[in-house]
User: What shape does this take?
Amino acid sequence: MEKEIIVNDSGEVIIISDTVKIIPKNAFRRCTKVSKIIIPESVYKIEDGAFEDCISLIKLNIPKSVKCIGRRICSNCISLQAINVDPANANYYSEDGVLFDRNLKKLLYCPGKMPGNIEDCVYKVPDDIKIIGRFAFSDCHLLTKIIISDTVETIEEFAFSDYLRTCPGSTQKDLNTLNGPEIAEKLRNHLQELIIGMGVKKIEPDICKDCQELLFITIKTLSPPPLVQQENSKYFLFGSSIMPTVIHVPVGSIYKTEPIWKEYAERMIEDVK
Assistant: This one.
């Protein structure tokens, strides 16, 4: 890969050669000075964590040629404002800088820094989305409220979790070394309210793990969606952390007696109409 990239004198811009077809896993991990990466039309695959910890990267443009994008390609890119996909791409698209899978109708990744794209630190998932992806919002340290549309059917594990606390490799020492202690603290998850729409049918484990400022979850669907339990784990929504989250559920629902959900009965208030 070294012979197939061009880096400017300041180290802030990376130009990938048009002979490159695959950007490998962790290819540019911890390239902390890089603010711009130019991906050619020859690239059809971007593997897991390709741009992880590129803390100065502001925007990422994905060409129409890309057919496969791995998980968390921009994790801990604290300056990232938007991922922009070429409108001609048949597999992926972007809206307000958020990355989506066109075919699966899946929200893949929301950048951590979205100036101008959110109002009052609130984000509403578009109405045609069916799946919230794994770790989709876990870098969104500016958001305090997320509203999930009624079309969403599945919420994958760790969707809203605090990645910097949840990911085993992200120790406090690593964070301080990479970002400095003051920045590391600002990167903590500040989500306070989560509203889950009427259409949710499946919730995977630990969707709000380590969201230590989360105060309210509102669930609009009358029938409790199944909570997928991890093997040998008693934690379902929040992970092992104890948080004062109140769960608002529909009036007359059976959440307080439903398996797994009843573990949170003391937190529940039946006031959703």
Observations:
- The two ends are 56 Å apart (CA to CA).
- The chain is about 5% helix and 25% strand.
- The mean pLDDT is 85.
